[in-house]
Design a protein that fits this description.
Length: about 450
């Protein structure tokens, strides 16, 4: 594995680790590293428990002296069997994770797995690759990976944030099931940047539910074998948290500061990003930046909206050079606010979000590409999941900057291609930026 030695040392040394890996190759290599670590963690725990069980039986049968057996040594288990939780955004990634894990454990890929046919149908089908509602338990038994095991007795759980969140519920819900997360010792976020495009609140709710003390009837381990660290509610300080993402973002920083409490600390190497455009890429477009003077998040939203309505919108709408423009917003809340305003004043704008129905999207994009609609308000998630294909526009307004740099590049490349094709001189980009936008820039 082509991973730096300090990264291997941090992972194998049970430090919390936030890995920012801009390339797919880097993500795949890091995934293999953390799977080796997770597998080793489960197997070492099983071996330790098996050895202690043998010694306990020897004490009971008189083959060893009672004073030689320290009772506290045998208290090395959690309330339930689950030691590793892996959160990943879609079934395609879950399929890859379980396939690699099986290969590492059995040396024969998916041959030595139970319920292989069901697994291939649920996770291996191409039409299901993008689904984000799933959860599956795995147990490692006699050099075989047993799939679809009950969560309380599973060694490893692989799930999407949405799939697990529908089971665990949230604070205030009457019926909640999260006792199987009470003894997690390694929690992994795989492709956290994609979870940001889904609903990162689900991730936060799940981390708030990990390592809670369950009710007695929800325990599956003999109470005499449960470690003191679990009874005393201290297991969260011994839990290792591992993240891999293509880019850093504020929500991830917040998650780390609130829920990553490993006593050994957090290692988060400063990422080195390559430029969105290389020196040989000539971006021959007029880019205009408007700076917003704000001090906090609440002021940012309000001042951004007022500045856009009172200044930018009127300027763009009546500019003869702007024939068709995309108005880009990074959040659904910004989308709703602008949509309500545009409808109120009867502005000639089409609206596409991640919740817009497919026939409506096709109708709007067709009208936009054919010049029947001149302005299109689009969310980052709608673009990220490929829900709309926009062509023949000559201006982009970034109401807020995208969190994903590659989306920025794609939009500019499309704009540049159209400008060259049409030989237009009015193509350009308008940005509204504030101090809080620096992490995205």
């Amino acid at each position: 594995i082509n991973i730096p030695e300090y990264t291997k040392g941090a992972i194998l040394g049970y430090f919390d680790y936030n890995a920012t890996l801009p390339s797919e190759e880097g993500l795949n290599e890091f995934r293999r590293l953390y799977l080796i670590h997770a597998l080793n963690h489960v197997l070492m725990a099983k071996e330790y428990s098996f050895t202690d069980k043998e010694q306990t039986e020897e004490v009971k049968e008189g083959e060893a002296k009672p004073e030689e057996g320290n009772k506290d040594r045998f208290k090395n288990k959690g309330f339930t069997h689950t030691r590793v939780l892996i959160l990943t955004p879609n079934k395609a990634d879950a399929f890859e994770i379980i396939s690699v894990l099986t290969e590492l454990y059995t040396k024969e890929e998916l041959k030595k797995t139970s319920f292989k046919a069901r697994f291939m149908e649920d996770f291996g089908a191409e039409e299901k690759a993008g689904e984000d509602d799933f959860k599956i338990g795995l147990s490692l038994i006699d050099k075989k990976v047993k799939l679809y095991t009950p969560f309380p007795t599973s060694d490893i759980i692989v799930a999407s944030p949405l799939g697990l969140r529908l089971l665990t519920g949230a604070e205030g819900d009457e019926k909640r099931q999260f006792s199987f997360l009470s003894s997690v010792e390694v929690a992994i976020l795989d492709k956290a940047h994609v979870m940001l495009m889904q609903n990162f609140r689900h991730v936060e709710d799940l981390f708030a539910s990990i390592n809670k003390i369950p009710r007695h009837e929800e325990m599956v381990t003999n109470i005499n074998e449960v470690g003191e660290v679990f009874f005393e509610g201290l297991s969260k300080f011994y839990r290792q948290n591992i993240v891999c993402t293509e880019f850093a973002f504020p929500e991830l920083n917040s998650l780390s500061s609130r829920f990553f409490e490993n006593y050994q600390g957090l290692i988060a190497p400063r990422p080195i990003y390559s430029s969105v455009f290389q020196p040989q890429d000539r971006v021959d477009l007029a880019q205009e930046f408007f700076k917003l003077e704000v001090e906090n998040l609440a002021d940012d939203a309000e001042k951004r909206f007022k500045h856009f309505i009172s200044s930018l919108w009127e300027k763009i709408r009546f500019d003869e050079k702007v024939k068709r423009a995309v108005i880009f917003v990074s959040s659904y809340f910004e989308f709703l606010r602008l949509k309500n305003h545009f409808k109120k004043v009867n502005s000639p704008v089409g609206f596409i979000s991640e919740y817009t129905k497919k026939p409506k999207i096709q109708s709007l994009t067709s009208k936009f590409n054919n010049g029947k609609v001149n302005f299109l308000l689009v969310t980052e998630r709608a673009h990220f999941f490929g829900r709309c294909v926009m062509k023949k526009f000559n201006h982009i307004v970034f109401y807020s900057l995208p969190k994903n740099a590659y989306i920025y590049r794609e939009l500019l490349e499309n704009l540049l291609a159209e400008a060259r094709l049409e030989e237009e001189s009015g193509s350009g980009i308008t940005h509204a930026v504030a101090k809080l936008s620096l992490i995205h820039i």
